[in-house]
Structures are given as structure tokens and as C-alpha cells.
User: Fold these one by one.
Assistant:
Number 1:
Amino acid sequence: MAEVRVRLADVDDLPDVCVATGEPTSQRAPLRFRWVPGAQWRWNVMVLPTPLAVAANRRDARTATVVLPVAPEALTRRQRLDRGFRAALFVGAVVLTASVVLGSNALLGLSMIPAGVALVLGDRHRRSLLLGEVDDEDALILRHAHPAFGRALDLRADQIGDVSGT
């Protein structure tokens, strides 16, 4: 996976290559990015207790919704991983709560199975996510973008440069 920089002014003129899979696609989808600028989140986590750090990070967070080329299969996979992750977390929490209420060590051990499933799905989901933030120059920095999208973006920039240079 690659890190790609897309100027927000150029978002309407992106190549028809899926940002996640690198496959040709004409479909566009709005993707919402959320980030905490700079090292602010690290400061919040180091200084504040966890609940306050979460609240401070929510307060300091910035969001941007950008329409990017995404293949339907990539969106479907992303949604499935997200649903599976959330379902495994929910089941794990229910079984863990039941083990505490009933005082059952067997249920406590059983709660580790959905927790493990959630861990695996969460890791796959995290790797499939496009992480992005807008920098000071109004450019979206995409992390985990497919290298083919980066190459297509570079080719598009070269073509625009050739046209404007002549």
C-alpha cells in the first residue's frame, strides 16, 4: 500500500482507478475521513486519563468527505469487515458480561473466542481502510492507497503538465 497526496482542487479530475484495489472503475463514492491534526492526539493521550483523552480527541478532530473512485467490491468488502468486527465485539461483550454476572469461568474463557475474531477482523479492516487527512496545503494525504492508483495519479499529473507546458 502506498501514501498518495491528492490536491483537493483536483478531486473532480481523478483517474478512473480504484483507490483501494487498483482496478479500473468509473464508480465514485463519498468517503469520510477523520483525523486529529499533528501530534495533538499524542499529547491528549499522554496527559489525560483515557475517557478525557477520548473526549479531547473528538473535540480536536477534523473531518473531510471526499468523492473518490472506489470499486463496488472494495466498498462491499469494507462494509462486511466492519459489520463482522462490530458483531464480534458485541457478542464478546455480551458473553463477557454474562460470565461476570453469573460468575462462570467457562463463559469467561468462551468470551475470548469472539474477542479473537474481533481482533483478526479489526486488523484486516484497519489494513483495508483508506486513512487520510488534509494537510496545510489543502491536499488530502491518503494512506493505504493502492500503488496502481498512485501511478495513475502521477501519470495524470504528467499529462496535465505536458498540456499546460505546451
Note: Residues 162-166 have pLDDT under 50 and may be disordered.
Number 2:
Amino acid sequence: MKCPECKKKMSRLETTCTACGHVLTEKDVRKAKVKRRLAIWIPLGSFLFLCALLLLIILIPEADVEEITINNPNGEVEYLEPLSLTICCSNNGAIRTTYEVPIIIDDETVKVAEFIIPGYENVTQDITIERDALPDVGRHTLKVLYDETDIEILGPAKFDVFFPSDDLALAVGENYEIDFEVENNGQSEGTFEYAVTFDGQEIETGDMTIAAANVGYGTTSVSSDTAGSFDLSINGTALSVPFYESKPYENGHYLMKNTVKGYSYIEIKNNSTKDMVAYVTKADDLTTAVIARYIVSGDVHKVNSIVSGDYMLFIQTGELWLPEVTKFGKNEKFYEYGPFDFENSVYNGSGTLQYMQFDILDCELDRYLRSSENCPTIPEK
């Protein structure tokens, strides 16, 4: 300790200062003890405080968002569908903590996700934001803490109905399958619910789920016991469906007579199981028939007086002949053969008669003749 008067250092056993003669009092001794204790505890307390502070820093929870994943493909949210997110949060401290993560779209908080994270661990959570909490259709900015990304709210599905075939000719009393297509021209997948009416009567209902920019396919069945034209409608899109009485012609019936006389002929044997119509056209004009004959299954017909030149032969075959529209009401197909030519010749006893023979069998139709999309037209009389 030091002398309170002259500040000379004294031993603990001395009671009188040898330098100035000051006699220590009990108060002087107590003050010296306090100073000694403070000299020890102040550094020790500072050290302990720093250790506690360091320990607190190590143990205090420190949560953060590690990763955000938008589960909707391409960041696109289909109409009426929710936004699906996967968020991973970490706790870099030792103490378990509860961490709230606000999810913001266009500066508006649409949901607050709560994470309970043990010390030094990661927690992944799937977050669903229902459609009623999302903004309108269009592009928007999604913000989760410091991360931003774009999302797009897609518009609804939009359906259009089409009938691939609109040139029908059906036979009375027969049942037919009519194809239809439904295009989804909207931005989202949707379910198309439809009702089919025929001649004003509902005959069928159904539904089909179609992705955006895709087509759904369906069929419906129709028949009629009377001739006439009837409307087939699917959700307001209508198709006129005509029914005709079927009646086959006699063999060799002239659908069109040749008007120019020549010296050649074609003989056609219909050895197939179906009736057919044979059309002859000029090779340079395949759209207009110059001769058209109806040939019954199992029969033969010869077309005489053909003028020399280049020709094509078209075969129309099927079942249930509809004379009103010159079509077959079922299983109709078209074939073509040629070109073939007849040389210029005059039958005068010394010349030769040009001719060709066709023996039409079921197997030969597909084997030797080419499929055709349609047949020549017959000029109006």
C-alpha cells in the first residue's frame, strides 16, 4: 500500500510512514484493501464479460434463406392453379429459432412462411399460395427476402370445336361415327365439357382434358330412319348431316354418255365384292369425266366408241349407292389407273380395233391401282 500523504510505498506490516511520519488509520487500511481488490476484479470482470459476449455471439440464432425453387414449370402458373414454392432456410447459430419469411408479389405480401430451425441445421418447406391470393393474369415479380424472380400467371383455357369432314353423304338406316376435334387455344390446361345434340335432341355428354396449344379428339354416333339434312351440334358448333335413300343402279347404268364417237373400247370386269363406278377422263384433264358407268359386283361392262387419245381410269367403290349425290354411303374409296393411250386408227375392215380390258379384283384395287383423294366430276347436262 501507499502512504495517503506522501504516496511512499509501505509494507503491509508498517503502521507509520518512515518518510513523513503519518500514522495509518483504520480508514486508510480499508481504502487500501478496496483498491487492491479492484485491481484484481476489474481486469477479471472485463475478461469474463468478453468471454460471455463471445459465447453469446456463437450461440445466438442466425437464420437465412439458402435456396428458393419455383415448382411451376418455367415459372408459369396455370389458370386457377396455385403457385408452388420450395424454400430452404438455415440456422447458423446453436440455439433453435423460429424464422418468418415474407413472400411478396409486386410489393404485396401474399404469405408469411414460418420456419422452426434447430441450431446449425437446414429446414426445407414446400409453400403453396392458392389462386385467390395471386394477382391477375400477366407477368409479376416474386420477392423472397433479397431474392427476386419473375412469374407469369397464365390465362384460362379456350376451346374451339371443329369437324374434320364437312362433306358428308350418309345412307338412311345406317349408323355412322362422326369425328370431331377440340383445340385448346388458351394459355392453360383445361377440361372441356360438352353436350352433343342431333336434330335438336341431346344424344351424348362428355368431357376431355386438353393441355394448352393441344388438340383433343372425339367421336359421336348418329343415324336416321328418314332422308333429310339434320344439325349435329357440339356446344353450339353445328355440322349439317345429310341422309339419303340408297338404291343401286343396274349394271352399265350411264352416269354420263360419251358424246364423241371413236373406234376403241374399254372392257371392265368387276370381280370385286362391291359395286363400282368407272370414270374415264382425258389424261390432260383429270377433273372432268368424259365417260361414267355404274358396274355391279360380279358383272362386266364394255364402253364402246372411244376416240383415240390419252386417258385415265378412275374407280369409285363402296357400299350403299346414293344416286341423289352419286356417292357410296359406306366404305367409299377411290382409285386411279393410267395414263393409257389409244392410237389413231379407223376400223374399216383392214385396220385394227384398239381396246383395253380391266379385271378388277378386291386384292388388285390396292395392289395395282393408286389411291386417290376424289373422283372426277360429271358435267351438268
Note: The mean pLDDT is 83.
